[in-house]
Specification:
The chain folds into two domains: about 1-100 and about 160-235 and about 330-400, FAD/NAD(P)-binding domain (3-Layer(bba) Sandwich), CATH 3.50.50.60; about 100-160 and about 235-325, D-Amino Acid Oxidase, Chain A, domain 2 (2-Layer Sandwich), CATH 3.30.9. The chain contains seven helices and 20 strands. The radius of gyration is 22 Å and the shape is globular. Helix content is about 25%, strand content about 30%. It has about 400 residues and is an alpha+beta fold. The structure holds glycine. Glycine binds near residues 55, 61 and 324.
Length: about 400
């Protein structure tokens, strides 16, 4: 049974469900366009950004069949420097740890080398900048690499940001620009007259809004009261991540992100300027499980050790698991749903941190004009709609608890 609702308490133009980096950037950009915005989240600035390494890896994480997504990823990567400068100022001078350090993707054996050669060919066909290096050239760039490294790809345009500091800056920018942040959970969507009209919070309070954005990462499909046809098709994809610390005496341990595919699994090492070294990540389809397992930690350390043997000397400071919001085609869901007034900003899967700047811009345009900008049209949630046209009168609630 629902807690008793108390009738609408506050009214905003836009109510964002989810205060992770995607929800926060949507709120911040919308408020800059003159909209009155509220965010609902029990822990704003938390979510997957607490776990993510923060690679901005449009080129090194290129996959076959994801050329459309590549365009959006590159656009967002391009916007990052200006976005960071503007956000840091709006957040009162916070530093989000943006580091234009580049990435080196390396191969440890003949199979890895063949895989990397394929990736290089795909990058070249896509007009991307990357340079093939011999093992010796890789080690000259990064002396801590294992002697067995057989070759690599130098990608000087794939940078990094610290997602925790990014999230904290977005919370500050939102609050300083007048976004109302409700530190509680959303229980269900309110639908009135066949349009989204607000949400009921866990304590029964109802918040009314002209438009609602579901930006709750992998949880975006779980809000009660959303008509079945408008439910976000997202699933959780678990990633376990380790944090180590590089003592001053060892610095610089690595000067750029180093990554590889070892025995078919991705491993990456992301060195921060403050001495933190992030090692990620597993990719596990295990539902809502966020347990850090001995096996996950073992595999990450084993693979990272093969790349950079000296890693075992470093203090291990944190282990954590998070959930990527996976969509059916691994690309984000941006913009209006079949239910008028209800939008999605979710499904960013491996690219949430990278796509933060462009998502904020796209969602602000959608919320002020009702239209997706050209660069985001391919990411409409409508691409997963069944061919038979649904009408608003056929909408039926799903997930109402
Ligand atoms: N983009 C890195 C990851 O999802 O693990």
């Amino acid at each position: 049974m629902h807690p008793r609702t108390t009738g609408p308490r506050t009214t905003s133009d836009v109510l964002v469900v989810g205060g992770g980096i995607i929800g926060l950037v949507t709120a911040w950009r919308a408020t800059q366009r003159g909209l009155r915005v509220a965010v609902v989240d029990p822990e704003p600035g938390g979510g997957a950004a607490r776990v993510a390494a923060g690679m901005l890896a449009a080129v090194t994480e290129l996959h076959y069949g994801e050329e459309t997504l590549l365009g959006l990823n590159l656009l967002s990567a391009c916007r990052y420097p200006d976005f960071v400068a503007e956000l840091q100022e709006a957040a009162g001078g916070a530093d989000v740890g943006y580091r234009a350090c580049g990435t080196l993707a390396v191969a440890l054996d003949a199979d890895d080398r063949a895989h990397l050669r394929e990736l290089h060919a795909l990058q070249q066909r896509s007009g991307l900048e990357s340079e093939w290096l011999t093992g010796r050239e890789c080690r000259r760039l990064e002396p801590m690499l294992a002697p067995g490294v057989r070759g690599g790809l130098r990608v000087d345009g794939d940078h990094q940001v610290d997602p925790r500091r990014l999230a904290a800056a977005l919370v500050a920018a939102c609050e300083r620009s007048g976004v109302l942040v409700h530190r509680t959970g959303a229980e269900r969507l309110v639908v009135a007259g066949d349009r989204a009209a607000g949400v009921v919070l866990e304590d029964g309070t109802e918040l009314a809004a002209g438009q609602v954005v579901l930006a709750a990462g992998s949880l975006s499909g779980r809000l009660g009261g959303v008509p079945a046809e408008a439910v976000a098709p997202v699933r959780p994809v678990k990633g376990q991540v380790l944090r180590l610390s590089v003592p001053r005496a060892y610095a610089p341990f690595l000067s750029r992100t180093v990554r590889a595919v070892v025995r078919g699994s991705q491993v990456y090492l992301v060195p921060r300027e403050n001495g933190e070294l992030v090692v990620g990540a597993t990719s596990e389809e295990l539902g809502w499980d966020t347990t850090v397992t001995a096996g996950g930690v073992y595999e990450l350390l084993r693979d990272a050790h093969e790349l950079v043997p000296g890693i075992t000397e470093l203090p291990l400071t944190e282990t954590r698991a998070g959930l990527r919001p996976g969509s059916p085609d691994n690309a984000p869901l941006l913009g209006p749903t079949v239910l008028p007034g209800l939008h999605l900003a979710t499904g960013h899967y491996r690219n949430g941190v990278l796509l933060t700047p462009v998502t904020g811009d796209v969602m602000a345009t959608v919320l002020t004009t009702g239209e997706l900008p050209e660069e985001a049209r391919a990411f409409t949630p409508a691409r997963f709609r069944s061919p038979s046209p649904s009408t608003s009168s056929s909408l039926s609630p799903a997930g109402v608890s």
